Write a sequence for this structure.
């Protein structure tokens, strides 16, 4: 969805005929914004209030487990349809 503000939802875009939504580097830029805000807070105020919004250890583990399971299934489905892309040990 690129840079800047937009008010589109997934449903809005689908109703316009959009079939694939690309966010480009927007997610990474949003993360770097939070990192910058935390750094500015520590430098300018000497406080660490940003840490109040962090995920718990369990939430983080659950999140990475979900992602790992998704990509494991995606990769398995993808590679099962891609014969000839890997070198066999017999060659």
């Amino acid at each position: 969805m690129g840079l800047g503000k937009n008010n589109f939802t997934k449903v809005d875009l689908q109703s316009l005929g959009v079939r694939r939504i690309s966010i480009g580097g927007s997610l990474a830029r949003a993360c770097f914004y939070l990192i910058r805000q935390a750094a500015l807070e520590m430098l300018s105020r000497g406080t660490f209030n940003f840490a109040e919004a962090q995920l718990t250890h369990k939430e983080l583990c659950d999140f990475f487990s979900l992602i790992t399971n998704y990509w494991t299934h995606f990769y398995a489905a993808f590679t099962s349809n891609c014969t000839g892309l890997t070198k066999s040990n017999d060659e």
